[in-house]
UniProtKB/TrEMBL annotation:
Organism: Bacillus solimangrovi
Family annotation (Pfam families): CitMHS, TrkA_C
InterPro entries membership: Cit_transptr-like_dom, DASS-Related_Transporters, Na/sul_symport_CS, RCK_C, RCK_C_sf
Name the UniProt record assigns to this protein: Potassium transporter TrkA
Organism classification: Bacteria, Bacillati, Bacillota, Bacilli, Bacillales
SUPFAM superfamilies associated with the record: TrkA C-terminal domain-like (SSF116726)
Location within or outside the cell: Membrane
GO cellular component: plasma membrane
Listed transmembrane segments: 6-21, 28-45, 57-76, 97-121, 141-160, 172-193, 402-435, 447-466, 478-498, 530-551, 571-591
Keyword Disulfide bond: no
């Protein structure tokens, strides 16, 4: 190994470690490595910038906008609700709901589909007393499988396609991946309806957990005559900065004051409603003139009034709230909402709410203003925003919704018959959406997940460094010496396993970018078609079922489904093994 190869290998190991330990946001970790390669002269500015102008990466940006426009008008949500309600049994509803999902995920980005359907499924399940955990992991898995059917089904396929074009090779056609995608989707659905269904947990949904634990969330104190701060502000009374507690509401006769501001005046007889770490309420009992109401009949649901509602929100990968405590992010003033509790790994974090540093996938229980859902339904800060009271729907014009869907279908047809490339079709679609005022330029910008694009573009730089330094060829040689005595099937299994391990531990796009140069070197060494390795890597990088962190859709349903990490391992491991063997057998039969 040369010094250059050793340096690149050390940097990649450091990058993987940082991603695994979540030392910073994934896009910033990978971007930092590319900056180091640039500063040390390993990559030229042109090589670094190549990822940012890659056709596959830019197509993903355009697809975010198109998918956002389709989701905005809520047509698919409404149709699926009606479709669900026609079935009488749980299995029948599951079968009815999941059959169309692969079709949607084959032509739309997976993330918006799961974001749109998670609240629909949760509310539908909870209205019928069914555990949402029986539906939400399958929702994520089915969208992942459906995304392997077409070139545009997932960002991973477009990234590999863009890299192939950069290497001067022919990329994927629109339905080339369907050779593998359709069989693994059918087998995956069969598994989830039978054996997988038995393995799915029967967890309480977030709403049921909240109802069951409501006494842990709220405490009530009454302001008596001896309270020294009567007719003074909340700030002056020292009730703004409490030890793990948050003054969420004041009940004054028939009047309810919420949210409580620092300038709100306290009066004798006020009922002060606190939430947060209720076990620390004893600290307040020592305050003269405050009496704890131990026999309070107030429930968490009673905090809602005409101006407030209980809301569940799931923190996204690209949220501006990450790596900051709730207090540091000034959550209350930014969103006009109070954080009652944070759930992580299906467990409530029992510490001072203001001191909790948020991570992607955290489920927040909020007491928010009546317009919170409307304002933040499409916010990049949250994956899912849904009321714990009643289902919400977006009230846009049905005509606009059908126009957006019709436009997407038209573009797919133009790509299928070869009149337009995927990039040109999506560029035209976005142009027409803006010209016809289906979406505004501001909305288009909001739909783009810039952190995902930075991650992908930066990962291209890492891939270029692996190729340029000779590390990709060295690793391919090592895999070849290991697998060649056992035959091509063994080599394909090794490539699949390595890619799949990377995607479970880091991210799907980064895994694909790291592995494709190795796959292309193997194809050259074996003198076999490169396309088989490209397909194997695309499928393996997408097929993330064993952990919630490898694929965004798994993380989106993590909190709302009330799942634990082991649930993904239990349900996802058999599916991952099935998909691996089916993929390897088909690729070997078709391309080798």
């Amino acid at each position: 190994m040369s010094l250059e190869m050793i340096f690149v290998l050390v940097m990649i190991i450091a990058m993987l470690t940082a991603l695994l330990l979540e030392l910073a946001r994934p896009d910033m970790v990978v971007f930092s490595v590319v900056v180091i390669f640039l500063i040390t002269g390993l990559l030229t500015p042109e090589e670094v910038l190549k990822g940012f102008s890659n056709q596959g990466m830019l197509t993903i940006a355009l697809l975010f906008i198109v998918a956002g426009a389709v989701q905005k008008h809520g047509i698919i949500d409404q149709v699926m609700k009606q479709w669900l309600n026609k079935s009488k049994s749980v299995r029948g509803s599951m079968f009815r709901f999941f059959l169309p999902i692969p079709f949607f995920s084959a032509f739309l980005n997976n993330t918006p589909i799961v974001v749109a359907f998670t609240p629909v499924i949760k509310n539908w399940c909870e209205e019928r007393g069914i555990a949402p955990s029986k539906f939400l992991i399958p929702l994520s898995y089915v969208t992942i499988l459906g995304g392997t059917i077409t070139l545009m089904g997932t960002s991973t396929n477009l990234v590999v396609h863009g890299m192939l074009l950069d290497f001067g090779l022919e990329g994927f056609s629109l339905f080339q991946l369907a050779i593998v995608g359709i069989p693994i989707t059918m087998i995956g659905l069969l598994y989830l309806f039978t054996f997988g269904y038995q393995l799915l947990p029967n967890h309480l949904g977030f709403r049921e957990q909240v109802t069951a634990d409501s006494k842990e969330y709220i405490a009530e104190m009454t302001v008596q005559q001896g309270f020294p701060y009567i007719n003074q502000s909340v700030q002056r009374a020292g009730l703004r900065e409490l030890n793990g507690l948050y003054l969420i509401e004041i009940i004054r006769g028939k009047e309810r004051i919420s949210p409580v501001r620092s300038t709100t005046i306290i009066q004798e007889g006020d009922r002060l409603i606190f939430t947060g770490l209720i076990s620390t309420i004893a600290d307040l009992q020592n305050t003269k003139g405050l009496a704890l109401e131990t026999g309070s009949d107030l429930e968490l649901e009673d905090l809602k009034n005409g101006n407030t509602q209980l809301v569940e929100a799931v923190v996204s990968h690209q949220s501006t709230l990450l790596d900051k405590s709730i207090k540091q992010s000034q959550f209350r003033s930014r969103f006009d909402a109070g954080v009652l509790a944070v759930h992580r790994n299906n467990e409530r974090i029992k510490s001072k709410v203001g001191d909790i540093v948020l991570r992607p996938g955290d489920a927040l229980l909020l007491l928010a203003g009546s317009d919170f859902i409307r304002n933040y339904q499409q916010s990049s800060d949250f994956y899912v925003v849904s009321s714990l009271a009643t289902p919400t729907s977006l009230n846009d014009s049905r005509k606009k919704g059908w126009f957006s869907i019709g436009l997407l279908v038209s573009m797919i047809l133009l790509v299928t018959i070869g009149w337009l490339s995927m990039f040109k079709a999506m560029t035209l679609a976005v142009f027409l959406l803006i010209v016809t005022k289906m979406i505004t330029p501001e909305e288009a910008k909001k739909y783009i997940q810039f952190n995902v694009l930075l991650l992908i573009a930066s990962a291209f730089g890492v891939g270029a460094a692996m190729t340029k330094s000779g590390l990709a060829a060295w690793m391919a040689k090592g895999l070849l010496s290991l697998g060649q005595p056992l035959g091509i099937i063994a080599i394909l299994l090794l490539i699949y396993l390595l890619t799949n391990i990377f995607t479970e531990l880091i991210t799907n796009s980064a895994a694909a970018v790291l592995m494709l140069p190795i796959g292309l070197e193997l194809a050259t060494s074996l003198n076999v078609p490169y396309m088989g390795f490209a397909v194997i890597i695309s499928i393996a990088a997408s097929a993330s079922f064993i952990t919630p962190i490898g694929y965004q859709t798994n993380l989106i349903v993590y909190g709302p489904g009330g799942y634990k990490f082991k649930d993904y391992v239990k349900v996802g491991t058999p599916l991952s093994i099935i998909v691996m063997f089916v993929t390897v057998v088909i690729v070997n039969f078709v391309w080798f």
